[in-house]
Write a structure and sequence with these properties.
The protein is mainly beta. It starts with 7 loop residues before the first strand and ends in a 5-residue tail after the last strand. A hairpin with a 5-residue loop joins β5 and β6. The radius of gyration is 14 Å and the shape is globular. The strands form two sheets. A five-stranded antiparallel sheet has the order 3-2-1-4-7, covered by helices on one side. It contains one helix and seven strands, in the order βββαββββ.
Length: 94
């Protein structure tokens, strides 16, 4: 599932899969979202950092949202890329 600006995923983490790809590690979460049912989400931004730091626990609540404000990222080659950052929180208190 892809999030758009202002979209929120909230629910129970059912599974966390990780792997290694051409661009480095990736993480896919299976979340039982309160309004969408079970969804698969590829971690981005803060969610990816939290997964890499082992902060995401299967069986715990998670809140994932894409910000409505764009930010500009400057790459090493000087080119720029505008994107909406993705944020994460853990309503259960972790």
């Amino acid at each position: 599932m892809e999030l758009g600006p202002g979209d929120v995923l909230e629910g129970l983490v059912l599974d966390l899969t990780e792997g290694e790809g051409e661009y480095g590690p990736w993480y896919r979460l299976k979340i039982k979202d309160e309004s969408r049912g079970v969804v698969r989400y590829f971690a981005k931004d803060e969610v990816k950092r939290a997964a890499a730091q082992d902060r995401i626990e299967v069986g715990e609540q998670i809140w994932v949202a894409m910000d409505t404000d764009e930010v500009t990222l400057e790459r090493d080659d000087g080119s720029t890329h505008d994107y909406n950052p993705t944020m994460v929180a853990f309503p259960g208190g972790s």
